[in-house]
C-alpha cells in the first residue's frame, strides 16, 4: 500500500518529435512542481503523423527515438517515474509498434507494452482508421510494480482503444493491478460519446484507479482528439480532469488502500460466475 501524487500530461503532439519533446519537458516540469512522482503522457506522445512519408521518415528504433530518450533523461533529472503512454517505434518486422515505456527515477526502463487491440473502425462523417495497416499488435499484457512513496503500486498497462476491452483490465486486476491505465488519442466524436463512461466503468468494475492521459485538440496532421485526461478512483469518482483539449497537467493523490476498501465493499471480482456457464433455452451451440 502506498500514497503518491500522479499527474496526467495532456498533449497536442504534432509531426515533429523535437517539438513534442519540448512540450513534454515543459509539462514534466509543471507536474514535478506540483508534487507528482508518477507522470503519464498520452498515446503517440512522440508524433502524430497521418502522412505515411512523414511517419516513415521520423520512425526510429526505440533506443534512437528522441522522445523516448527525452523521457528517460527527464525521469532521471527530476527523480520521478515517467510512463510514456506510447510512441511509434520500429518493430521487428515491416510494421511499427505502438509502444508504452515506463522509466524509473534513475532512468531505468522498467517496462514496455505494445498495444494489443488495433483501432480498425469506420466512424461517422467518413472518419476511418486502419491501425493494423501500420502497427503490429502486441501479444502480451502489461503489468509493472512501481516503488512509489513509502510503498509500491502495481500498474496495468493499456493504450487507448484497449479501454474498450474489459477482459484485459479484469485480468490485470485479478493479477493484482491497483492502477489501470489507458493513455489515449481518442477521436473527438468517440470521446464525446464514450470517453468518461469507459474510463469510469473500468475503475468501478475492477475496484481500481484508472489514470489516462489524453491527446487533445486540432493536431498538425489535421486530426482532432478529445482531451479530458482523467484520474478516476476505485469508486468511480473523477479525482482530476483536464477540462477541455488544451495541453496541460492534472494532478491527484492516489492512496492504494482505497483499492482494498472498494473491493471489500463490492467483491464483484471474487463473485464472478458468468464465464463457463451455459445459456438457457438450448442456446449453448449458438
Ligand atoms: O495511428 C496513429 O497515428 C496513432 N494511433 C491512434 O491514434 C489510435 C489508433 S488510430 N487511436 C485510437 O486507438 C483511438 C481509439 C478511439 O478513439 C476509440 O476507441 O474510440
TrEMBL record:
Residues in CN hydrolase domain copies: 4-256
Any GO molecular function: hydrolase activity, acting on carbon-nitrogen (but not peptide) bonds, in linear amides
Domain of life, source organism: Bacteria
Coiled coil: none
UniProt key word Hydrolase: yes
Keywords: Hydrolase
Keyword Hydrolase appears in the UniProt entry: yes
Similarity annotation: Belongs to the carbon-nitrogen hydrolase superfamily. NIT1/NIT2 family.
This protein's name: Predicted amidohydrolase
Species: Consotaella salsifontis
